[in-house]
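Report of the visiting student (M.T.), summer placement. My assignment was to run the structure pipeline on a short list of targets and document each run. The first record concerns RNA methyltransferase.
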Amino acid sequence: MRKIRTIEMQRLSIEEYKKSEKLPLVVVLDDVRSMYNIGSVFRTADTFRVEAVYLCGICQTPPATEIHKTALGAEESVDWRYYKTAFEAVNALKNDGYEVLSVEQVEHSTKLQHFVPDPSKRYAVVLGNEVKGVHQEVVDASNGCLEIPQLGTKHSMNVSVTAGIIIYKFAESLVLKPE
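After the run finished, the structure tokens were exported:
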């Protein structure tokens, strides 16, 4: 096996990306403090052509050197918006017809392995602060909660890793087809 060179990958230009069909998913970051985590979410969002990233509360917005360091330019390809609170973002998304799912450990959450996205719906997922998670008022305003099963001793994962797992689940279910 030979590694494929970047030039051989035929990646989209930013202009082509902007015009391309998107995964019907918005990623909402609720008070994520690390700009490196934000940049990483942008990069994963670009990889799977996520519709948009909503930055809320204390989230830094582009342009920022630390975001760019991990986003590697994805903050320019992926659409984004800023909201003062994630609660405001969730209400706006619900008013636009999105099903909003917080990613959080709560009573009666849906374990990720049991979740099957409906291809006729548009979704938004809310990812929370690195320490406190998703605000309770945001959980309460959500249509439901997804939970990633954790089998080890820790009770949480890095927010950018969580984003990668969640975004992949949607991409796998909605757009990636076995060849």
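Strands lie at 23-30, 50-56, 80-83, 99-103, 110-111, 123-127, 144-147. The mean pLDDT is 96. I thank the supervising group for their guidance throughout the placement.
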